[in-house]
Amino acid sequence: MAKINDTSTTDFILLGLFPEFQYASLLVYLILLVYLITLTGNSILIFLIWVDSHLHTPMYFFLSQLSIIDLFYISSLVPKMVINYSLGKRSISRIGCGVQMFFCLTLGGAECLLLTFMSYDRFVAVCNPLRYRIIINSKVCLLMAVASWTGAALNSLIQTTYTMHFPVCGLKKIKHFFCEIPAILKLSCEDTSDYEMVLFMVSIIFILTPFSLIVTSYIRIFLAVLRINSPEGRKKSLSTCFSHLIVVSLYLGPAIVVYMTPGSSHTPALDQGLSMIYTILTPMLNPLIYSLRNKEVVGAIKKTLGKYLISK
Q1: Nearest Cα to Cα of residue 14 among 67, 114, 87, 112
Q2: Per-residue pLDDT tens over the stretch 138-187
Q3: What is the mean pLDDT of the chain?
Q4: Which end of the chain is less packed: N or C, by CB atoms within 10 Å?
Q5: How far apart are CA 167 and CA 177, in angstroms?
Q6: What gap in Å lies between CA 307 and CA 59, rounded to an integer?
Q7: Are the C-beta atoms of residues 291 and 301 closer than 8 Å to each other?
Q8: Which region holds residue 51: left if phi is over 0, alpha if psi is between -120 and 50, else beta?
Q9: Angle at alpha carbon of residue 257, lines to 256 and 261, rounded to 5°
């Protein structure tokens, strides 16, 4: 993408997103545009949920947490990428690489767990509506959010520490646009097969198990929705659940391929493309998917704009 400046021997070199792509500048500008859209969309959604009392429900509490995660997630990657390209450098220190890995793993893991809790929230709302406010109360919502952040942070601390302890040989060129575990392990001088098996087991907990629970929840939701007599109620339930399933598919699908299949079975370009989906594209699409398909959010936007125009 740009010429590499001289770097310290302790630095890594991030080769960037599709380094052989001919129109690198266009790609960087597109990613920057996606970043700005993500910041705007998620910030607006968080603001609406905060100011509109009609959105002070468990579902929107989880949605606000998802937006916060997405804001931090994409912000841990894109600014570094754009700055490096603008300055004509690709280096990142070993400490900087570890910090970036820790935050990406924390935010990625928290999103996996949060999506699972969101599916449980929808399951209770549809299949057990009379007891919904008792089961999913404010205390339970807070505990779920804390569990998502804490569990992901503890896992990230362990995985980052262990990954970064491996000695690295050669030029330390990371065939990726950020410090992701599979890309770092490929640089190691030591045999990492045992740790890759541990990573696979952890991925079962943070990726495959949430995916299985979410699918199970939505199968039961779908069966319950079919028994709803009201066409309007059936349509509303399916619309909300369909939005959630789009997010889950875009996020967990690529992650399963990257973390749960042998690294030798896919190229660096494929890893980068799949990683871009769940680190850059999904954070942008989340607020669009939830807001455009949600009458309550659209109503909150209209009401907020109406108040602003009247005040003017």
Answers
A1: 87
A2: 999 999 999 999 999 999 999 999 999 998 887 788 988 999 999 999 89
A3: 87
A4: C
A5: 21
A6: 25
A7: yes
A8: alpha
A9: 100
Kindly calculate the radius of gyration of the chain based on its CA atoms and give it in whole angstroms.
Answer: 21
pLDDT of residue 308: 59
Neighbours of 87 (CB within 10 A): 11
Q: Which residue has the tokens 């779908």?
A: 222
Q: Report the alpha-carbon distance of residue 30 to residue 158 in Å, rounded.
A: 34
Cβ atoms of 93 and 172 within 8 Å: the answer is no
Given a cut of 50, is residue 1 above it in pLDDT?
A: no
The residues that bridge with 263 in the sheet, in sequence order, are none
240-263 burial: b if 16+ Cβ within 10 Å, else e: bbebbbbbbebbbebbeebbeeeb
Instruction: Tell me the per-residue pLDDT of 97-121, one tens digit each, with 9 for 90 and over.
Output: 999 999 999 999 999 999 999 999 9
Q: How far is CA 307 from the centre of its chain?
A: 33
Q: Would you say 11 and 91 are in contact if contact means Cβ atoms under 8 Å apart? A: yes
Query: 3: which DSSP letter?
Result: P
What is the CB-side half-sphere exposure of residue 245 using CA atoms within 13 A? 15
pLDDT in tens, 38-63: 999 999 999 989 988 888 999 999 99
Element counts in the chain: helices (H) and strands (E): 13, 3
